[in-house]
Every structure is written in structure tokens, then in C-alpha cells.
């Protein structure tokens, strides 16, 4: 009888343990949250947000970032671009200046330096700084629950020096005459770009391409991500990206962003490219080194070089600009608002970089832990209003079937004025891009809503006086 009771107890315990283990497993695997497939419809009124997970919160984790996804929704964000999520190589890990961490003798000092996100040691793993694969999947689900798509920053041009391919497949890398793997070289000078913490990949090797594509498809299948931002896309063959796009779209529709300004990448591989030239024009106008005419020339240029369904990403800052070239306060000390508004009003998709919404006023460290402010102020409210207008007014459509852009002559070369329109929807931007007060005469626009000031105005052959760097966003009320 005792044996029977013991056997029953053992069976019961095993059944209870298995049942609990099954519950734990079910709890551990995040439920996939579905979202409408990537489409031209979702691109037309989107704002994109670049998430620097390491610096976004004191914790620097996926979970801490995911808590704020509803805040990004307030800003009109439809796409989140996550900076690289992969582990960072320890060999030749960057510290400061040209130093590697291995050159720092003090252990506590050495631990401060976390290396560059763009020196990847394993394409199919998660950086433990940020959390686990489960945490990453939860972030994707949280974004999808809020109607937001997530793309991942991918580094196709090079890997870190302890990536498994270094030893398993040295032929996957560019080698010198001695057979040594080398870091990326500037073909114009024959000198190193300075990315000495990385090893240059060899795209003449078809097996490497095949393995790279396998790793890219992994994240779409495993974590249900919605596409990629490709680092230094202009350094990788166009036909490789065309193959990538074809293979990924066999799984699901994806959104592809190229860190490049290269129209042929947009023909069959990418949806959007960087508006680098416009960004540099903004910086120079803000300093008085360029004028509205330079912006006009740029708009005429892209009208001929880009196809109708190509998208430019418009920005006043990003991770490179903030860390290496200066804050908005440094580059646009008294006029960031007008340039920010312009990124929403001109054709294309506006970018917000981590901390920009909180008026970040310091250069984020690149190789160490840092942080951003989290106090909402006037600039946050401006981005919120601009995002709402971008999301809701078809006249600002910037996707595959963009709204029309029509330059309006003001007879004043310091003032930029244009109309965006889609069907019956019309929005007008007028801005003074100078340090002096400017007057635009005989404006006959009729009844308009001054969107930022939330005032109804009537312009019947009326002059508009604009203070230095002042702008108006006007919506037709007819």
C-alpha cells in the first residue's frame, strides 16, 4: 500500500512539475502581436524615431525603452529604428580617441568603455547590455500594439574582430597582399577610414553573401521585425541589397532604409535614403554660409534625380551628428525650430533622434554609458504638434505617392514659401531664414489657420512681417 501511495505521489509531483514548466515556458515566450503589413499606406504620413537603447535610459535596456513607446506614439512616430542590437566585439574594442580598451591598464577605467555598436561580434545574438531575446521580442510586440513598426540597424560592411567568421571563414574578409584581414579602406586615398575596431567584409565571396542573408532573414522570422536600416549602404554592392530585399519580402513586406544618398539603391532595394545634402544645407543656412536659394537648387535637383516613389529621410540631428558634429544648440543656436518644422513640411519623412524630443543639449558619448534628459518642454510640444499634422493631413504625405510641392515666389530671397497639396488638402509653409526681420508683400491667401499659433487669419493682399527665423504653417480653411 505504501508503494502505491509513493507511486501516486511521484506521478502527481512529475505531472505538477511538467505542468508548471509548461506554464513557465508559455509565460517566457512572448505572444506575437500582429500589425498591418508594411505598405505605401503606412509610409505616407510616418515619423521615424532613432532609438539609442544604451543612452535612452539609466538602465540602457530594451525593457526601459519599451515603457516609453506610448510617448513616442504621442509624437506621431510610426517607425522605430533601433541602433544595432548585436553584441559588441571585445577584441580591438574602441575606448576613446584612437585607443582600444586593451591599452588601458586601469581595470575600472577599462570597464567604462563599451565599444561601438557598429563593431558586431555575432549577427544572430543580442547585446547582453540591452537584455535578452525575450526582452527584444517584447519590445517589438509593444511597438506593434501601439501601431508602430520596428526596423533594426544592420552593419553589412564589416564585423568586429571576434566575429566567428574571422576564424571559420577568413576568406569572407578583405585581405592584404600578406593574407592579413584588414579594416575598411577609403578607396580614394588607400588609407584606413579609422574604423580600426572592425574587419572589412569581402562581397566578392558569394558564400559570405549567402550567410549574411541567412542572418538577416533570421530576425524577421524569429522576432517579427519589420525591416532594416543598413549602415554605410553606399560601401556595399547594390545587387546584394536587391537580393536581400527580394529574400526578405518572401517572408513578409519590409521597410528598408539606406544610410546613403544614392538613387540606384532606391530602385529595387530600399524605400528610403538619408537626406544628407539637405541636412548640410540646413547647417550652413543656420550659420549664414548658404541661403534659401541653395535649398531651392536642392529641391530642383532631387526632382530630377529621384523617382516619384523614392523617400528622403529629413533630419536636423542623428547619432553621428550629435556625437561627432555637435548638438542642435551648437549647430543651430537660435533657429532649430524653423529647420525642425521644415523637415516635416518638405517632401519626405522626418526623423527624431533619442533625446531630441527632450531638447538634448549635450553630445552623447559614443563608446561609454551616457543618458538623455526626460523633461517635456516647448520643443517636445512642437514635435508633438508637427507629428499630429504629419499623421493627419494628406497635404504632407511624403511616401510612395507624395503630395505635391510647389514653390511660391515671395520676391524676397531670405524667405522660403511653398505649398504642399493633395486633392483638396493644402498646407503652406513660409519662413524667414535670416537674422533680420523680413516682409513679404501682398499675400492673397484668403482664410487660413495659423497651425502653430492656433489662430484663424485672413490674408487678402496683406503683408506678412516675419521676425528673424520666424515661420508660419498655414492651412487653408476654404
UniProtKB/TrEMBL annotation:
InterPro entries according to UniProt: GH, GH13_cat_dom, Glyco_hydro_b
UniProt record, GO biological process: carbohydrate metabolic process
Keyword field: Lyase
Domain Glycosyl hydrolase family 13 catalytic: 37-390
Cross-referenced SUPFAM superfamilies: (Trans)glycosidases, Glycosyl hydrolase domain
Cited Pfam families: Alpha-amylase
A GO molecular function held by the record: lyase activity
CDD domains in alphabetical order: AmyAc_arch_bac_AmyA
Keyword Protease: no
Name of the protein this chain belongs to: Alpha-amlyase
Organism of origin: Confluentibacter flavum
Amino acid at each position: 500500500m505504501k508503494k502505491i501511495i509513493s507511486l501516486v505521489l511521484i506521478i502527481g509531483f512529475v505531472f505538477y512539475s511538467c505542468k508548471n514548466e509548461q506554464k513557465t515556458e508559455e509565460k517566457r515566450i512572448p505572444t506575437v502581436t500582429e500589425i498591418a503589413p508594411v505598405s505605401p499606406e503606412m509610409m505616407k504620413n510616418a515619423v521615424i524615431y532613432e532609438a539609442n537603447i544604451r543612452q535612452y535610459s539609466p538602465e540602457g535596456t530594451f525593457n526601459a525603452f519599451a515603457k516609453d513607446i506610448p510617448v513616442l506614439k504621442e509624437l506621431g512616430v510610426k517607425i522605430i529604428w533601433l541602433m544595432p542590437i548585436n553584441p559588441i566585439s571585445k577584441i580591438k574594442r574602441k575606448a576613446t580617441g584612437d585607443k582600444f580598451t586593451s591599452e588601458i591598464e586601469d581595470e575600472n577605467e577599462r570597464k567604462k568603455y563599451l565599444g561601438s555598436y557598429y563593431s558586431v561580434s555575432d549577427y544572430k545574438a543580442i547585446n547582453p547590455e540591452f537584455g535578452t531575446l525575450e526582452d527584444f521580442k517584447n519590445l517589438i510586440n509593444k511597438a506593434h500594439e501601439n501601431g508602430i513598426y520596428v526596423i533594426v540597424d544592420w552593419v553589412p560592411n564589416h564585423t568586429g574582430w571576434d566575429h566567428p567568421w574571422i576564424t571559420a571563414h577568413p576568406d569572407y574578409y578583405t585581405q592584404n597582399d600578406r593574407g592579413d584581414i584588414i579594416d575598411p579602406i577609403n578607396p580614394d586615398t588607400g588609407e584606413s577610414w579609422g574604423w580600426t575596431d572592425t574587419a572589412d567584409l569581402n562581397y566578392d565571396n558569394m558564400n559570405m553573401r549567402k550567410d549574411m542573408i541567412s542572418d538577416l532573414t533570421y530576425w524577421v522570422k524569429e522576432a517579427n521585425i519589420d525591416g532594416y536600416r543598413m549602415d554605410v549602404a553606399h560601401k556595399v554592392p547594390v545587387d546584394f541589397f536587391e537580393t536581400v530585399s527580394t529574400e526578405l519580402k518572401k517572408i513578409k513586406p519590409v521597410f528598408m532604409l539606406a544610410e546613403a544618398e544614392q538613387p540606384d539603391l532606391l530602385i529595387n532595394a530600399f524605400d528610403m535614403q538619408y537626406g544628407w545634402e539637405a541636412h548640410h544645407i540646413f547647417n550652413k543656412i543656420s550659420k549664414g554660409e548658404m541661403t534659401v536659394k541653395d535649398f531651392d537648387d536642392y529641391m530642383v535637383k532631387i526632382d530630377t534625380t529621384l523617382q516619384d516613389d523614392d523617400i528622403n529621410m529629413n533630419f536636423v540631428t542623428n547619432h553621428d551628428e550629435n556625437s561627432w558634429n555637435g548638438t542642435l544648440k551648437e549647430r543651430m543656436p537660435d533657429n532649430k525650430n524653423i529647420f525642425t518644422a521644415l523637415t516635416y513640411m518638405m517632401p519626405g519623412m522626418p526623423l527624431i533622434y533619442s533625446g531630441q524630443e527632450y531638447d538634448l543639449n549635450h553630445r552623447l558619448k559614443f563608446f561609454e554609458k551616457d543618458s538623455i534628459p526626460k523633461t517635456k518642454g516647448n520643443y517636445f510640444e512642437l514635435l508633438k504638434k508637427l507629428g499630429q499634422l504629419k499623421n493627419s493631413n494628406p497635404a504632407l504625405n511624403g511616401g510612395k505617392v507624395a503630395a505635391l510641392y510647389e514653390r511660391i515666389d515671395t520676391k524676397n530671397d531670405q524667405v522660403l514659401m511653398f505649398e504642399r497639396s493633395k486633392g483638396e488638402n493644402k498646407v503652406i509653409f513660409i519662413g524667414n531664414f535670416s537674422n533680420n526681420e523680413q516682409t513679404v508683400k501682398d499675400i492673397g491667401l484668403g482664410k487660413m489657420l495659423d497651425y502653430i499659433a492656433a489662430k484663424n487669419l485672413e490674408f487678402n493682399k496683406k503683408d506678412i512681417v516675419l521676425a528673424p527665423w520666424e515661420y508660419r504653417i498655414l492651412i487653408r480653411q476654404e
